[in-house]
UniProtKB/TrEMBL annotation:
Name of the molecule in the record: Glutathione S-transferase
Residue ranges occupied by any GST N-terminal domain in the UniProt entry: 12-78
Organism: Jannaschia ovalis
Pfam family, one: GST_N_2
Taxon lineage: Bacteria, Pseudomonadati, Pseudomonadota, Alphaproteobacteria, Rhodobacterales
Gene3D superfamilies reported in the protein's UniProt record: 1.20.1050.10, Glutaredoxin
Signal peptide extent: none
CDD domains, sorted: GST_C_3
Length: 289
């Protein structure tokens, strides 16, 4: 038995993104169950994960429930001490836990004014005083962590749970064009290029669901992700591969990339790959072979 996790819409659920990163970025397998937010299905789905009231929520291999992102982080760190969720150095670990807890409970102006949306870039967003104050605090927190850790793109050198918690804030900075320093922008760019985050965003594109509740009423542009391998869905094969690179099942849905046609067992497998082919190691293994 493996871990199972209930998550919301990948393009919008910032807390679900944190849950995903606490697994995927540390090489821990998890079986995802998706539920649509702002739908009649949401409350019904949670009844199978008591006592959770929101997402993400994890069922452990032993049948326990972690119904909060901090519980997920600490539970995984306890169960997998070598995975590296927290820095090994005691002083760095103390600061990492502190700034993670601050992210969990703070930055309310930024989070309220700039809900995460991985589908669009909002043009012309004007940050008000509360948002600017939160950005200043972010700069201070990130600088303190990097000063302790030294070189490296992440807050404490190696990727940690603190980075997973701040990833959705980095996506807000990218998606709203928020004013930050060059050093903070480099940290945002590291998140944008991070394969686990790219995989999460690709799943959101494959879900292809727009939630009007997140509409800011501003002109939009493409979300500023790194350049990707051009790909598009096509109606038919034959494909280079006979089995889906993810499930091993026979192919029935097709994509063109690199001048060749590739097959997948279902539309979701195809569409998440179309969104960002290089984010998926299993696909790239056959693409590069």
């Amino acid at each position: 038995m493996t871990y199972e996790m209930l998550v919301g819409d990948c393009a919008y659920s910032s807390w679900s993104l944190r849950g995903w990163l606490l697994f995927d970025a540390f090489g821990l397998p998890v079986r995802l169950h998706h539920v649509r937010m702002y739908s009649d299905d949401f409350a019904a789905a949670l009844t199978d994960w008591p006592p959770a009231r929101t997402v993400p929520v994890v069922r452990t291999p032993e049948g326990g429930i972690w119904s909060d992102s901090l519980a997920i982080a600490e539970g995984l760190a306890e169960a997998h001490p070598r995975a590296g969720h927290w820095p090994a150095d005691p002083r760095a670990r103390a600061l990492a836990r502190s700034v993670t807890a601050e992210m969990h409970s703070g930055f309310t102006a930024l989070r309220g004014a700039c809900p995460m949306n991985l589908r669009v870039f909002w043009k012309g967003f004007a940050a008000e005083d509360g948002v600017r104050a939160d950005l200043a605090r972010l700069e201070a927190v990130w600088a303190a962590a990097r000063e302790m850790a030294g070189d490296g793109p992440w807050l404490f050198g190696a990727y940690s749970a603190a980075d997973a918690f701040y990833a959705p804030v980095a996506m807000r900075i990218a998606g709203y064009g928020l004013p930050v320093s060059e050093a903070a922008r480099a940290y945002v760019d590291a998140h944008l290029a991070h394969p686990p985050l790219r995989r999460w965003r690709a799943m959101g594109e494959a879900q292809n669901r727009t939630l009007d509740v997140y509409d800011k009423g501003l002109p939009t542009a493409a979300f500023p992700m790194p350049d990707r391998i051009p790909a598009r869905a096509v109606p038919q094969g034959p494909s280079v591969n006979a089995a889906c690179p993810y499930s091993g099942k026979p192919v029935a849905h097709f994509m063109e990339a690199g001048g060749r046609v590739w097959g997948f067992c279902n539309a979701f497998c195809r569409d998440k790959t179309v969104a960002d082919p290089a984010a998926w190691p299993a696909f790239m293994d056959i693409y590069d072979s």
